[in-house]
# Entry
Amino acid sequence: MTTAVAVSASPSSAKKAASRNLLATCWTTAGDANPYPGDQRSPVGIRERVEAASGAGFRGLGLLHADLMPALDEYGVRGLRTLLDDHGIVDLELELLTGWWATGPDRVRNDLLTAAEQLGARHIKAAPDVAGGSWNRDQWITAFAALAADAANAGTRVGLELLPWSNIRTVHEGLSLVRDAGAPAAGLIIDVWHTERAHTPPADLAAVPLRYIVGVELDDADAEPVGTLFDDTVNRRRLCGRGAFDLAGVIAALRATGWDGPWGAEILSEEHRKTPVREAVAAAFRTVEAVLKQRCQ
# Structure
């Protein structure tokens, strides 16, 4: 567990931050589904997921490509956007782009960019390389700049999520890449699970320029991982405030950058998947809202 950075916000800015939209990331509403290789589709229908998120209080929603495409097949672009609008879902996050650094056709990339433009998605989430192979940094900078340009043309942004078991493990490594890409639509997804497991102190998060932050995700976990980092992140995350993470320090640090939302809730665990969807999503909302409100008092 890291040490909180001493950062304070004015009452007006703190109140504004607490009232900003909260976003339920894709796994938070997915029910009994997980990111392990194989069939990652949620067994929960898109309408039930939207209703669960909206009913809990979320005004943002994340969708995985594997669930986005069936939802578009069922509702069409106009129908899906209407479903989101009717339930007060303002911010839409789409994921997950992998292999974007390679050349050649990429169906998932095309699907996500097209859907982002048609649905008015806030951003697309991209991942680094988890295979552990060699990589050419200059090639990656060029590829990420091209991806960001495609995102800008689609009216959205692309956020690179830092993964402590990948080739881009830390905020410092990710920030270096997106800076060198030099594209306004390029930035980072900062998930507290990944920054805490990478032992990144809140003060380092406070130093990230706001223009490079595309999204923020809050969650919690025990002080030490169990098993591999991937197994731990998929099976043992906790609701906010139920673990050992320095959420107070992280939230204060991110507010110091000027970030005021949307704040994502990304809850992944065996317990979460076994809980009825509406109950699980409501618990995710309550606990994220609680830790954000604590920082405003």
Summary: The beta strands are 22-24, 60-64, 91-97, 123-126, 157-161, 186-191, 213-218, 263-265. Residues 65-86 form the longest helix (22 residues).
